[in-house]
Design brief:
single chain; about 110 residues; alpha+beta; 2 domains; 5-stranded antiparallel beta sheet; 4 helices
Length: about 110
């Protein structure tokens, strides 16, 4: 699951060795802590494609996401992003999903 907030992008996946545990990954330092301030984050730039990660139980992940939902104070997500370094990257995602909405057939070369 990919989750975008005003100040974080994280990927959440199941731990292959422990289905009760989720691995939260991020590409930017501080993104995991923006959602889970008490998480013990390790830096893994060589091991995998996400440079930062932590292991949390499902309840911790759920609680962190719920807090983010309760903090929504905007009518337009794109305009809510205060970290202007993120804006161009988030806009690329927005455009990609707009393209999918208007062109739902994936070209053969895209598979």
């Amino acid at each position: 699951m990919w989750i975008y907030t005003k100040d974080a992008f994280v990927s959440v996946v199941e731990d292959r060795h422990d289905p009760e545990t989720l691995i939260v990954r991020s590409r930017v330092s501080g993104d995991i802590e923006a959602v889970w301030p008490d998480a013990e984050v390790i830096h893994t730039p060589v091991m995998a494609d996400y440079a930062y990660r932590t292991r949390l139980n499902q309840q911790e992940v759920t609680a962190g996401i719920a807090k983010q939902v309760l903090k929504i104070d905007y009518a337009n997500f794109k305009d809510s992003i205060t970290d202007k370094r993120r804006s161009p990257f988030y806009m690329r995602v927005w455009h990609a999903m707009w393209d999918l909405q208007h062109n739902p057939v994936i070209p053969e070369s895209g598979r």
